[in-house]
Amino acid sequence: MRGADSVPRPTPTGKTPSFPHARRKTWLRTDIESCMLQRRCKLRGRMKKEQVLNCQFSFWYPRFKNQTIRSIVLPLPQNVKDYLLDDGTLVVSGSEDLPTCSQEDDDGNSDEAEDVQWSDDENTTTLMAPEFPEFALKVQEAISALGGSVFPKLNWSAPRDAYWIAMNSSLKCQCISDIFLLFKSSDFITRDFTQPFIHCKDDSPDPSLQYVLVLRKWCELIPGAEFRCFVKENKLIGISQRDYTQYYEHISKQKEEICRCIQEFFKKHIQYKFFDEDFVVDVYRDSMGRVWIIDFNPFGEVTDSLLFTWEEMISGNNLKDEQSEGAAMEQDCPSFRCTNSSLTVQPSPYLSYRLPKDFVDLSTGEDVHKLIDLLKLKRNQQDDEES
Description:
It contains 12 helices and 8 strands. It has 387 residues and is of the alpha+beta class. The longest helix has 25 residues, at 20-44.
């Protein structure tokens, strides 16, 4: 029997070569063209450090401030950055901003606070958080100017993975201690500080950064009204439901209208106005049908592709096949994806951040050494019980 490699393949003209040499030459040309195409796709998907820099909030906000939520940007002092990166015991600075818990009784006599002794060790020292009075004053003034409640973030990221640690289980902050608690508990914030260019492919030296604290006026945004838009070569090629773990019936029913509104907003306010031709922009469509910019992100794997894959985004494959008939007739209409059934609802991707990292590594098998240590511990326990 002849192997699969010996079956003649058709040439680009549709004819089968009659000689082995011609057949090999055709295969070689086809393989080279395929490799070149793959290489061009990979090169187009190579994220550069300049793209990451351009997505810093302080870079794009002045240009698009009329199309987004009102915000105030404060330079982050070096000593505050050092405090946020300190890997010691979590002691939140700014506690003086919190209201006192002592209350007076009906007779006007205040109850004496009961001292609680948590340790018998007389040498135990109380950990004191560093204070930043000048910076704290600027933060509090900014919070007041924005209505008393803010959504905090750094140059790129917000501490979405740490919302569970806040007293209100939210990113809504009213004082500097609320912000510090979220920032010191967030892996996303740490990554902004330590690995901002981790997925960049260029070999140029890392540029120097001026870190800032971004305070955005708090708005009650509906998760089902947020969408992530993928822009390649200044063309809107894909729109994904932002909160893809949940099913929203109104998105499925209105997806053509939503897609049209976002596309009109993009052409009027964003297209050819951002610093790069490849980028990702998060938008919000309110109850009146108006669209607002939430954030810009780099076009690359550092940004969550949600209901798409980055292979699809970079190559462009499988994007046009799923469009509706009406959308397919329109030129340059983006692909729109949403969760179409309640059966596909998933848990929030931020839930794993509530657990210690060791537990997560063990459950996912990402750290083999921890698993081996756990098995050794279990075996030693069994040996102790048997003896």
